[in-house]
Amino acid sequence: MKDNADSRPFAPGAETVLTHGGRDPSAQHGFVNTPVYRGSTVIFETLADAEDARIRYRYGRQGTPLTDGFEAIVTQLEGAAGTVLTPSGVSAISLSLLTCLSVGDEVLITDSVYEPTRIFADTVLKRMGVTVRYFDPRIGAGISSLLSDATRVVFLESPGSLTFEIQDLPAISAALEDRDITIIIDNSWATPLFYTPLALGADIVVHSATKMFVGHSDVMMGTASANDRHMDALRATHRTLGLIASPDDTYLATRGMRTLGVRMREHERRALDLAAWLNEDSRVTVLHPALPDHPDHAIFKRDFTGSGCLFSFVLPPAPREAVAALVDHMALFGMGYSWGGFESLILPSRPARIRTAVPWTDQGNLFRVHVGFEDFNDLKSDLASGLDRYFSTAGM
Ligand SMILES: *Cc1c(COP(=O)(O)O)cnc(C)c1O
């Protein structure tokens, strides 16, 4: 981004960063977008150049002008010291944990965490000799009772992307004050447009860029951004592990970023409308932190400036046939993993199977909904028919 012609200090708003950040047409013959640099080898002119560590581009694994541009956008939005790109959200999560943990250390993880994060911790981290403990997502300042001398990392995901508990990051951060403990948080749901956890005490923010940043269900990518204290270690571990995002995927992710602002606001409005409509049905329990009756609504309102495209609802207990009757015959809502694209999705899930710290006691059937950009009345009638099929199959 260029400075103002008169060089007045200029702090661009988030949507200006999204549209103008990380690109320099004057360096690309005037073309608006930075092209894909598809490369491994970089040719040095002289031996002196080959030995000059200050030369930015030395080998494909160390990034290109395009990856630098995308990283710059995320860095600026998150208020971070820097960002690295990884081939998936899960690799951004594993990278961040591996950056901070060694044998004998302990990590505390919210019980509401994305299941593959839990699987990484329970397999690779445990095998490395790291103690893994899960905690009540609503623990807040109570986390101090779980800390030991070995605790090195607290891992949050707010809200949990299946059950939508909000974690009280400022209270958790205050409880860790003066201890050498790193807070890592998965911010995929809110994006930095609606939540900037580094400003509230987190140290490293990870994203499944696959979801909102890419926005079109066609790329896998992750990002990890850190504050000053952790950026060097994060970047060094990223290089050592060789986690490089593909240039073509980085191009698509950068393109997705340009419209993130309008997409987030539109997703927010639609998800809230659909959630509020479902909430009117007394048989339906809606899990959406922006609804005033959500148990964490006060924390949500205090810390977030908006809400995402994804929420869940729980229907009264009924046999599997009722779940199948709902999801097998949707006209528009697709059944599949991931979210953040233009198309609506619905996914049944059973949190009770996953939880270990706080048992999930609701016996009902949970459905996670991603609200896309189809005609809103079409979406409503699709879901209304699905609910009718559920209740009639269940004999309710
Ligand atoms: C999908 C997801 C991830 C993992 O991202 P991938 O890009 O699929 O590896 C991490 N966290 C959350 C909250 C997600 O929804």
UniProtKB/TrEMBL annotation:
Residues 1-29 are annotated as: Disordered. It holds the Pfam family Cys_Met_Meta_PP. It catalyses: L,L-cystathionine + H2O = L-homocysteine + pyruvate + NH4(+). One of its GO terms (biological process) is transsulfuration. Signal peptide: none annotated. InterPro entries: Cys/Met-Metab_PyrdxlP-dep_enz, Cys_b_lyase_bac, PyrdxlP-dep_Trfase, PyrdxlP-dep_Trfase_major, PyrdxlP-dep_Trfase_small. The keyword Lyase applies. The keyword Lyase applies. The modification N6-(pyridoxal phosphate)lysine is found at residue 211. Keywords: Lyase, Pyridoxal phosphate. GO terms for molecular function: cysteine-S-conjugate beta-lyase activity; pyridoxal phosphate binding. Its cofactor is pyridoxal 5'-phosphate. It comes from the Bacteria. Belongs to the trans-sulfuration enzymes family. This is Cystathionine beta-lyase. It comes from Pelagibacterium luteolum.
